[in-house]
Specification:
Structural class: mainly beta
Oligomer: single chain
Radius of gyration: 24 Å
Strand content: over 45%
Helix content: under 10%
Distance between the termini: 20 Å
């Protein structure tokens, strides 16, 4: 039920400078706190939610030790807590997922004698905050898998490779895809061939089919853009292929050295269906999301740009029929008046001159975050400008490099079910952070109500009355500020901006340790975030749209 609304890209977190300003909070949201409960620290924290429960899964300093907490969704009171130790050697938690209102934890155990990576699924009982052992072996893979390497000593955990398996759910939530990548035998990208593993399961994690497929191209020739699984258990994959093995040449003006492929896998040992395609000559796919819209159709969507540019020109959609695969692209350029919103008059004049001279005008550093399709078939795309800047200083024969991460304006696009562009809305935002504050209180979250899309993010309060001809002031991560809502009317695309609360005064309580990964949507119009309130107690802050 909740998956259609759980499209928060990231969200909240700390704040922006207030300079002692007193601000009247909006009455458009209900803000309430749960009862405090004892703090539980963890190396990582993950949250699962269903109609009735929220379960927090907190990994301890050892890779197989967990603490589970269960909360009811009405008031987010803690109803159960348990310490769990997974049995076995070389055991690591890989993922957690909610599937048709049931909670699952997936973990691996490496069988060294057999050189196999075994993946287990175990169900979490939200009533008792416990797991229903024994774990169910759902997949066994021979050889080494690629993943993210964690150096020894970090958080007290030894060196290991994690995130070896990735999960994708079908839109109808009746199939789940587990995929992985075999570690290549050769480390030379010009010679190594990627081998991708797929396993498709039903709602009980019974395997429907699994297979391992080597790609047709070397790693230097190939970029995998996106995966998807449909309600019939077919797996889709979108590739960008560079036949001459030179990735990125399309971004440097060489637009004829790449093409795109859609691959469809329907089962073990079944022949792969391959569909080669390209957009128009002056359009390059800069981002891709692939999603099932109904039993007969998939939608591929994202941003496009000119092959020799880093500016996003607009949105494209490609409707892919399942029975007889065909590509029918639609293009939606970002209007100049949208690009010029919340820009200085100098920047706006430059953009107008460029457009008049037929030069490239677009939105820089735009990343596609998420895609939502409502029950009527209308699509909503959410994107955000984000980038990293580095600077190096040298002193006493040593150098130090500092990285600063920026999360800026949001672009929301609605495309009606008939393929017509309804509107594009630009939300001004200017967040930056370095070191331990990177991402923690940056980016945004989405809260839907019947009339509006509410984008929630931490902002500098000086931006509340910002004009459309000015850039927003920076919110410096970790320096205080307000949770702000930019509400977009679903039908018209008009935007209003209002403060929700000051994190230093949430109904009289100062809260700490806001983290984007701690946000859960507890029902169709409420989200909640677990925070620290001092005194060795945590509390949930619950925000609801009226």
């Amino acid at each position: 039920m909740r998956q259609s609304f759980m499209m928060f890209a990231s969200i909240l977190l700390l704040i922006g400078n207030t300079n002692g300003q007193s601000v009247k909070k909006t009455d458009d949201f209900n803000v309430r706190l749960s009862k405090p409960f004892q703090v539980v620290d963890g190396v990582s924290k993950q949250y699962l939610n269903s109609d009735d429960y929220v379960v927090a899964v907190k990994l301890q300093s050892k890779s197989n030790e967990l603490i589970l907490q269960s909360f009811d969704t009405r008031n987010l009171g803690e109803i159960a807590k348990n310490e769990i130790k997974l049995e076995g050697k070389d055991v690591y938690v890989e993922a957690t997922t909610e599937f048709n209102n049931r909670f699952w934890l997936l973990y691996t155990e490496y069988a060294k004698s057999e050189e196999k990576e075994n993946l287990y699924a175990v169900e979490i009982d939200p009533k008792t905050a416990n797991i229903k052992m024994p774990g169910k072996l759902i997949l066994s893979v021979s050889g080494k898998l690629s993943g993210d390497f964690i150096a020894g000593g970090l958080y007290g955990i030894g060196s290991r490779v994690t995130n070896k398996f990735s999960l994708e759910k079908s839109t109808l939530e009746n199939k789940i895809l587990v995929r992985y990548r075999k570690k290549p035998e050769k480390r030379n990208d010009d010679k190594s061939i990627e081998e991708i593993g797929f396993a498709v399961f039903d709602t009980e994690f019974n395997q429907i089919w699994s297979d391992e497929r080597p790609m047709k191209y070397t790693e230097s020739q190939l970029e995998i853009q996106d995966y998807s699984v449909d309600s019939e258990g077919n797996v889709y994959m979108i590739l960008t292929v560079y036949p001459d093995g030179e990735k990125g040449k399309a971004a440097k003006g060489k637009s004829d050295n790449y093409f795109f492929e859609l691959l469809r896998f329907s089962g073990a040992n079944e022949p792969v269906e391959t569909y080669k395609f390209n957009l128009e000559n002056d359009k390059y796919l800069s981002s891709v999301l692939l999603k099932e819209t109904d039993k007969k159709q998939m939608i591929m969507t994202g941003y496009y740009r000119k092959p020799d540019s880093k500016l996003t020109d607009g949105v494209y959609t490609v409707n892919i029929t399942k029975d007889n695969v065909s590509f029918t692209p639609n293009y939606y350029p970002i209007p100049l008046d949208v690009l010029n919103l919340y820009e200085t008059s100098r920047t706006s004049k430059k953009n107008e001159k460029k457009e008049a001279d037929d030069d490239d005008v677009g939105m820089p550093d735009l990343k596609l975050n998420s895609l939502y399709t409502d029950d009527e078939g209308n699509s909503y795309l959410f994107g955000e400008r984000s980038y990293v800047k580095s600077s190096t200083s040298t002193a006493q024969n040593s150098s130090r490099t500092t990285y600063v991460t920026y999360y800026c304006d949001i672009l929301v696009t609605r495309i009606n079910k008939d393929g017509q562009l309804a509107w594009m809305a630009k939300v001004p935002k200017n967040q930056r952070g370095a070191g331990r504050y990177i991402r923690r209180d940056m980016s945004y979250s989405i809260l839907w109500d019947k009339n509006n899309i509410n984008l929630l993010y931490i902002d500098n309060i000086k931006n509340l009355e910002i004009g459309t001809d000015a850039r927003p002031k920076f919110h410096q991560s970790g320096m205080g500020g307000f949770l702000t809502s930019s509400s977009i009317n679903i039908d018209r695309g008009t935007t209003t901006k209002k403060p929700v609360f000051d994190l230093r005064d949430v109904n009289g309580t100062e809260v700490f340790q806001f983290d984007t990964d701690r946000i859960v949507q507890i029902n169709d119009n409420e989200i909640a975030v677990e925070v620290y309130k001092k005194g060795k107690e945590d509390v949930w802050v619950i925000v609801g749209a009226k």
